[in-house]
Amino acid sequence: MLRTRIIEGLFPPGSRLPEEVIADGLAVSRNTVREAFRLLSHEGLAAHEFNRGVFVPVPELEDVVDVYRVRRVVEVGAAGMVATASPSALRAVRAAVDGGRRAARANRWDDVGTADLAFHQAIAGLAGSPRIDDMMRRILAELRLVFHIMADPQRFHAPYLDRNQKIAEVLERGDGDGAVRELLVYLDDAQAQLLEAYHAARGSVTR
After folding, report:
1. Domain CATH number, residue 114
2. Tens of pLDDT along 117-169?
3. Between 12 and 99, where is the model more confident?
4. How far apart are alpha carbons 107 and 38 in whole angstroms?
5. Are 30 and 19 in contact (CB under 8 A)?
6. With CB atoms 3.0 to 4.6 Å apart as the test, which of 80, 98, 156, 188 could cross-link to 150 if both were Cys?
7. Contacts of residue 74, Cβ cutoff 8 Å, sequence gap at least 6
8. Residue bearing the bigger pLDDT, 16 or 149
């Protein structure tokens, strides 16, 4: 539940995760919450600060680079397996594209970001592997933290609505090679945008 809420953007970087409040809200013991924190810390989604508590970490520039390194391996590999993907896996890709467009029409740009993450989760799902699905959920939770560096979510997410649509159409044609080509360029462009935003943010701090 906590990982899902991070993916949905409800816990931005730097947020304190209050143990007692979470335990009461989820109707679980505080020991259960502590175990969840321990697991999330191994995934890079929680950080213990001595005498202060548990916080959602603020990703570093190196984290952005590594997240995209993993995405190229996982997503690109899964896209290339579209010929053997199940119909339900392809429907999940289409559903995520449609969800992003609905959120954009309603001017809910944080929800567009959530739909974008669902789109990439669905691409990984083309591989048909529960282990890859679980790995991708952890990676996308980290990516949501990275998204918070973008001051204008509409400006960042809007261009990818059409690009998601195009990739979905290529996948629906069963063109794995074409999807791989589109996705590689897509990931390069997205990483470049995020790194530029990180450099700009650091520059504003130093000034």
Report:
1. 1.20.120.530
2. 999 999 999 999 999 999 999 899 888 888 888 778 898 999 999 999 999 99
3. 99
4. 36
5. yes
6. 156
7. 124, 132, 135, 136, 139
8. 16
Range of the domain at 69: 61-206
Q: Which tokens belong to 40?
A: 């999330």
Number of domain units in the chain: 2
Tokens of 125: 């799902």
Residue 202 pLDDT > 70: no
Judgement on whether residues 49 and 66 belong to the same structural domain of the protein: no
By the 8 A CB rule, do 14 and 51 touch?
A: no
Rounded to whole angstroms, how far apart are CA atoms 30 and 107?
A: 38
Instruction: Report the alpha-carbon distance of residue 137 to residue 94 in Å, rounded.
Output: 18
51 lies in the same domain as 71 = no
Return the structure tokens found at 130.
């529960």
CA distance 89 to 105: 25
CA 132 to each of CA 55, 68, 192: distance values in angstroms, whole numbers, following the listed order: 27, 15, 25
Residues 95, 25 share a domain: no
SS3 53: strand
**Reported pTM:** 0.81
